[in-house]
Design brief:
Shape: elongated
Radius of gyration: 23 Å
Number of strands: 0
Order of helices and strands: HHHH
Structural class: mainly alpha
Helix content: over 70%
Number of helices: 4
Distance between the termini: 46 Å
């Protein structure tokens, strides 16, 4: 049983697992990917320049880039798994408490309608 199910069973409220990566990691992942592509371009631009020191730096940079790519892939999988778990927990809650879900949806709809009408 995952943490969302335990929380849902006890209080009928959906409380996200704060230990898992949040969906706000997506902009960070995009920024890291941009930095990675810039580093790859830099490696290609300096490929003609020789020297043992530069070759060592290139090798370490390539290895670091591989490691970062693997970590990004793991983070994306974790975010996707967290989103799936949240969707399943929400679906379960709505099926167990349909009138509460309808009331919440109606309340949010009324509030949004009221706020948008004022503009």
């Amino acid at each position: 049983m995952n943490p969302l199910e335990k929380t849902l069973d006890k209080s009928n409220a959906i409380i996200p697992d704060r230990s898992a990566p949040s969906l706000s990691m997506e902009p960070l992942i995009a920024d890291v990917r941009t930095a990675m592509s810039d580093a790859e371009a830099l490696l290609k631009a300096t490929a003609q320049h020789g020297g043992e020191a530069l070759d060592g730096i290139r090798a370490r940079t390539r290895e670091s880039m591989r490691t970062v790519n693997l970590r990004i892939a793991d983070a994306q999988q974790a975010v996707a798994a967290q989103a799936r778990d949240a969707a399943k927990a929400t679906d379960r809650y709505v099926h167990q408490n349909p009138w509460t879900a309808i009331g919440i949806g109606a309340g949010v709809g009324l509030l949004m309608g009221f706020l948008l009408r004022r503009r």
